[in-house]
Amino acid sequence: MNKNKHVIDMIFPIALFFVFISSCFIVLILSFHTYRKTVQLEQSNYQTRTALSYITQKIHQNDLIDSVSLQQIDQKDVLVLKSSYSQGKYTTYLYEDKGYLKELFISNQLEFDKDDGKKIMPVSHLKMQQINPYLYHFSCIVDHKEINTNVAVQSK
After folding, report:
1. Which pLDDT score, from 0 to 100, does residue 27 have?
2. Which residue, 78, 98, 110, 129, could crosslink 106 as a Cys pair with Cβ 3.0–4.6 Å?
3. Angle at alpha carbon of residue 76, lines to 143 and 43, rounded to 5°
4. Contact status, residue 22 vs residue 29, Cβ threshold 8 Å
């Protein structure tokens, strides 16, 4: 009887230790899964918001009278930002092509070619719309999430 008591006294702490270790392992796995989903969601939101923030900042940088407009080129919406420098007149084109937001900064003496643009970041379904002469609406999809923003042009 004394012998059985010693075996149970030894088995109980070992069993308790294994229950504790397995519980820690389960909590670790669950927290890793939650962390991974959170990082993916934040990355997706960052990319979507960054694309629209980039467009917004470009508009604000070029906010001069008659310098911001939308055009349809090759059946795609293209944001056209005109600017003048001491070397001449230049145009910045912002558009979506082959799954990327692209930017092309060229002299007005050159022709627009969408393949020449620099890839900024991956986006899809970038839609641009001029609501009135001073307000633009932009939307894009990144990782199956659509984000919308409106940008007001202040110059008149």
Report:
1. 94
2. 110
3. 20
4. no
